[in-house]
């Protein structure tokens, strides 16, 4: 029973919140009142959670030696010797082999994006994360693949579903913002960050401060443009989404406060769960957005 718990823990369920972006398609296409399409989005969410868990298991095996020097990661079951590397790899491969054929049942486009997600993350674990800038872009593209997959799984049943390019641009820069904040946390907190990952040797706090500011501003601007973009107004019959901008502004500013004043940012998913202000802000944004789309 303990081994099952160690496997589940190593799959990092708290990080599965990243996959909530798969619901963007069903929300912004205003199909959140269609049970069949909501169910498909839920299937996609579960599949990506399990695929993400498989990737985390592989990462723990690859990093088990370096993670022994990390103050937090050294407690992970694989690194601590509580879960065998062979078992972790076996479970990860089994999940991938079982789940990818299932994604084909839900549509060829969803299958291709799911396979690309796995390939990108495996490439990240083995190569991309050691290359400065490319490491962060790899993380961001995994978010774009999630968003695209959320639309693809609906398109098999509702061919007209699409996601605004401005929302995709916002997703790109918001994920870059979170990733650069995480890199800043790592080089400021870890005593020998470069020994943990080669790419960290190339980052400096000042350089990352510039990248954080750039990505935060661009994410906010692209979201703001989306709310007043003519095609958005035409699609929803209103420009009321502009009233959701303050929630995005507050969320970004609050996160910056946590990064620069409280020296947090190493675990974006943890911040979502632990910081009450951000949790309330995200909930209020989601409630307001759904209310506007439902009303109009």
Q: What would you say this structure looks like, in words?
A:
The protein is mainly α. The chain has two domains: 1-163, Orthogonal Bundle (Tetracycline Repressor, domain 2); 165-296. The protein has 13 helices and no strands. The chain has helices at residues 2-10, 24-28, 35-62, 85-105, 108-126, 134-155, 165-189, 193-196, 205-228, 230-236, 245-260, 268-274, 276-295. Helix 5 (108-126) runs antiparallel to helix 6. 35% of the residues are buried. The mean pLDDT is 89.
In short:
The protein is mainly α and about 300 residues long.
List keywords for this structure.
0% strand, single chain, 296 residues, 13 helices, mainly alpha, Tetracycline Repressor, domain 2, 2 domains
Secondary-structure topology with pairs:
Layout: H1 2-10, H2 24-28, H3 35-62, H4 85-105, H5 108-126, H6 134-155, H7 165-189, H8 193-196, H9 205-228, H10 230-236, H11 245-260, H12 268-274, H13 276-295
Give the N-to-C terminal Cα separation.
50 Å
CATH superfamily of the largest domain: UbiA prenyltransferase
Sequence stretches where pLDDT stays below 50 over 5 or more residues = none
Q: What is the CATH topology of the largest domain?
A: Tetracycline Repressor, domain 2
Average pLDDT metric? 89
Task: Count every beta strand, where a strand is a DSSP E run of 2 or more residues.
Answer: 0
Shape: globular
Biggest beta sheet attributes: none
| Proportion in β-strands | under 5%
Task: Please name the CATH architecture of the largest domain.
Answer: Orthogonal Bundle
Helix-strand pattern: HHHHHHHHHHHHH
């Amino acid at each position: 029973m303990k081994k099952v718990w160690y496997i589940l823990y190593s799959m990092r369920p708290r990080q599965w919140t990243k996959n909530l972006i798969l619901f963007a398609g069903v929300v912004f296409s205003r199909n959140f009142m269609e049970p069949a399409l909501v169910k498909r989005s839920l299937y996609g969410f579960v599949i990506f959670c399990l695929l993400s868990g498989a990737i985390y298991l592989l990462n723990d095996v690859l990093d088990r030696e370096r993670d022994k020097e990390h103050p937090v990661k050294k407690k992970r079951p694989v690194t601590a010797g509580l879960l065998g590397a062979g078992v972790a790899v076996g479970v990860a491969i089994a999940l991938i082999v079982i789940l990818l054929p299932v994604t084909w049942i839900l549509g060829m486009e969803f299958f291709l994006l799911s396979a690309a997600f796995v390939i990108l993350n495996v490439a990240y674990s083995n190569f991309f994360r050691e290359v400065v800038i490319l490491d962060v872009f790899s993380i961001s593209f995994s978010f774009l693949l999630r968003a695209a997959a959320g639309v693809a799984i609906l398109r098999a049943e509702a061919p007209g579903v699409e996601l605004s390019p401005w929302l995709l641009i916002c997703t790109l820069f918001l994920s870059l913002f979170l990733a650069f904040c995480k890199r800043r946390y790592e080089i400021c907190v870890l005593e020998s960050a470069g020994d943990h990952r080669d790419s960290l040797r190339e980052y400096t706090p000042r350089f990352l401060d510039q990248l954080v500011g750039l990505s935060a501003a661009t994410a906010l601007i692209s979201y703001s443009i989306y709310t007043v973009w003519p095609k958005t107004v035409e699609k929803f019959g209103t420009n009321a989404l502009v009233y959701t901008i303050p929630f995005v502004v507050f969320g970004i500013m609050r996160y910056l406060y946590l990064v620069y004043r409280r020296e947090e940012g190493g675990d974006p998913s943890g911040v979502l769960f632990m910081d009450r202000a951000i949790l309330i802000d995200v909930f209020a944004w989601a409630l307001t957005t759904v209310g506007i789309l439902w009303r109009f």
